[in-house]
Amino acid sequence: MIAGRLGRHRATINAEINRNGGRARYTATAAQTRADSSRARPKATGFDSDPVLAAHVTERLEAKDSPMTISIELARGTHGLVASLSHECIYQAIYAHGRRGLRAGLHEGLHRRRRCRKHRVFGPPAPKKSPLGLFNPISLRPSVALERGEVGHLEGDLIIGAANASALVTLFDRASRYLWVADLPDGYHADGTLAAVCEILDRSQTVTASSRPRHVDDHPGPTVD
Predict the structure, then answer these.
(1) Per residue in 97-142, pLDDT tens?
(2) Is the dihedral angle over the CA atoms 38, 47, 94, 83 positive or is it negative?
(3) Other CB atoms within 10 Å distance of the CB of residue 61
(4) CATH code for the structural domain at 142-216
(5) Is 8 exposed, middle or buried, given 0-12, 13-18 or 19+ CB atoms closer than 10 A?
(6) Which of 92, 59, 95 is nearest to 74 (CA)?
(7) What is the mean pLDDT of the segment spanning 69-91?
């Protein structure tokens, strides 16, 4: 749940908790203090402290080997050099462009050849469709409604009182400037709003479009011809 809200992988959240005392002892202030202290220390990267390893990885990247392949073969000692180095460390050094022990420009040897890494989001995907479903937006109303030349084309709106304690539904005729008002004594939920609108529509002719907030998103919207 925490990982989803923060848009991070659950393994990242677990690592943060475990390195700061576990679930029983973790506090955000202590974790932040520890992180600030660690960041302030001048630390040499793995490639800065091991030029042989840096030269080997650079040579492999220039040969267009992937960081994953390099990491696996270093762990196995395939080319006579044994090191515990994750592919993520290699990627970070590549995209640091010369600031982490590897020369700049090595991203050209990668499969995608991106100069900057694409940010990965582990949270829930954004909805591709409108959460309101199918409805008639105001932008699609006919020209006769725009010209205000015909009675019966209404616009709906919701008026909410102080502290959300009261609400009204209004329907406005664009041609005659006539306004209908209905009270929502039980609050502005979907069923109550629909009932109030239908009550007003009994006295009108045509509804072509309405602004559509979330309090009516359970319904496709009434249309009376």
Answers:
(1) 888 889 999 988 888 777 777 666 666 766 666 666 666 677 777 7
(2) negative
(3) 23
(4) 3.30.420.10
(5) middle
(6) 59
(7) 92
CA distances in angstroms from 29 to 25, 26, 49, listed in the order given:
12, 9, 32
129 CB-side CA count, 13 A = 5
- Residue among 146, 145, 167 nearest 158 (CA): 167
Find the Cα–Cα–Cα–Cα dihedral 22, 27, 28, 32, rounded to 10°: -80
Q: How far apart, in whole angstroms, are the C-alpha atoms of residue 35 and residue 43? A: 14
Sign of the alpha-carbon torsion through 182, 184, 185, 186: positive
Please provide the DSSP assignment of 150-189 as one string: STTBEEEEEEE-GGG--EEEEEEETTT--EEEEE-TT-S-
Which of 30, 11, 12 has its CA nearest to residue 20?
A: 30
C-alpha dist (Å) from residue 184 to 70, 145, 189, 198, 211: 67, 27, 9, 13, 17
- Would you state the structure tokens that stand for residue 149, as one six-digit string? 């030349």
Domain residue extents for the chain: 2-109, 142-216
**Alpha-carbon distance 53 to 65, whole Å?**
15
